[in-house]
Write a structure and sequence with these properties.
It is a single chain. By secondary structure, this protein is an alpha+beta fold. Helices cover about 30% and strands about 20% of the residues. It is built from six helices and seven strands, in the order E-H-E-E-E-H-H-H-H-H-E-E-E. The strands form three sheets. A three-stranded antiparallel beta sheet has the order 5-6-7, with helices on one face. Strands 1-2 form a two-stranded antiparallel sheet. Strand 5 (about 125-130) and strand 6 form a beta hairpin. The chain is globular.
Length: about 170
């Protein structure tokens, strides 16, 4: 959940063959009916329903106590680098999507200075997946040479908010 923008994101959705067959990439949707009691977007136990093609997917929201059991699980720790890489690639594809005509102007109005800096940095630069399946943008690096850079390698202006975790 991305509480500031009331969005739900599931980059793992295509692990299910029925969904992968549709081929629409990560699930991103707006949570239309939300509660803000206790600072959470939706309450633990609530169900969020999303449509993907002809499928209706139902997610059950876990409470905050589930976080430790997930992030401290030995498999999560063993694969942390891969999870980070997947997150960077998902964010890269979302950034590329936010550059679309009619979308970019709205994205630039969002109260997220790092998003603004990234949109300005990538502008209309081409992007592609390399042989390792990392999404890279064709941009000048800090020395001014054109390079294929991952999102986490793109130089941003001094003072730009750090990426999560801060």
């Amino acid at each position: 959940m991305l509480p500031d923008s009331e969005r739900f994101v599931d980059p793992t959705i295509e692990q299910f063959a029925e969904v992968r067959k549709i081929g629409m990439g990560p699930m991103v949707g707006k949570v239309a009916m939300s509660t803000h009691e206790g600072g959470s977007l939706v309450e633990a136990g609530a169900q969020v329903m999303m449509q993907r093609g002809d499928l209706v997917l139902t997610y059950t929201v876990a409470g905050p106590e589930a976080l430790a059991s997930i992030v401290e699980h030995p498999q999560a720790i063993a694969h942390a680098d891969g999870h980070r890489r997947t997150g960077v690639n998902t964010a890269s594809l979302m950034l590329a999507a936010l550059r679309a005509e009619g979308v970019r102007d709205r994205a630039m109005q969002a109260p997220h200075p790092r998003l603004h800096a990234l949109l300005q940095a990538v502008a209309n630069a081409p992007y592609e997946s390399d042989e390792a399946q990392d999404v890279r943008f064709h941009l000048p690096d800090q020395s001014g040479q054109e390079q294929w850079l991952r999102l986490d390698e793109i130089p941003l202006p001094p003072g730009t908010a750090a990426a999560w975790p801060r």
